[in-house]
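FAQ: What does the model actually see?

It sees only this:
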Amino acid sequence: MKPEKEVTIYDIAKQLKLSAATISRALNDNTSVKASTRKKINDLAGSLGYRQNVVASSLRLQKTNTIGVIFHELNSYFIISVLAGIEKVATEAKYNLIIVHSAEDANLEIANAGNLFQKRVDGVIASLSFNTQNLNHFKQFESKKIPVVFFDRVFQKSDSAKIIINNFEAGYDATTHLIEQGCKRIAHITSSLKRNVYAERLRGYKHALLDHNLKYEEKLVVIDGFKEEDAIRSAKKIMAMKPLPDAIFITNDFCAAVVMQALKDAGIRIPQDIAIVGFNNDSISKVISPKLTTINYPGFEMGQLAARTLINHLKGVWDMSVPGTMVMKSELIVRESSLKKGKK
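And it is asked to produce this:
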């Protein structure tokens, strides 16, 4: 069975006895065509099953109205919040999204970047995988003047547009809060120190200890992934420490929740025996028991800022290279998991 012939603007023009140019303007919502005529044209186009030839338009205009988004994962509350923010701004500006994820694999990230380049995206928003070594795979965009905005996980010394929080300050605040609760032997569970977010949170943790005359002990730092099996492994390392730490700063809320449950299953009380602070303010932080003290990471707002920055640059409204790095505010949210002194 042969496919039906595609309806063209000439078919619509013939039925309505209008010029093809008028049809084209109306279908592109050009206000030079009267609103009543635009409605008549769009109604007929819909009933006939007309589809705009986006590929041809893109080639003609050298623009696809498409933004590529590279995530390092898709199963975290933070990333979902960022995506919601990007999608809101992009939809309002009539941009489409192509979403890919590296699954924490640099090779897949490189392949995804190449795929987006071949799809002629107008711009890219990206957060790097655990083991990304450099930004060479983004040079293809630079060569064609295709803008890229990095968020969360970035190379801080690069000249690229970047949107981050002050991870050093967040790590410092989380650790200081535990110290103020009377904790003196504070462990730290984190992940790949190749990434700015974890390296800077560790640096904040170290400085808070030093500023409060507490010794930094490398053996109290556990570096692993954030999946359930990783978190269980981290919890076992904590329980093997002699003596046990009296607090843990964990740089991921899901990981913190799994660690808390493993400790509770072993008869360790939270926060009486070990106080805990997480990171991200994921939904899980509000439903576990005790509720988790955490750092609020404004994912939705970060996504909005990334999309707005990119789209304003594409529209010539703003040069996103000035400033090169935008720092968003985060805050400590105190809940029961860290309150050894029993008060907020």
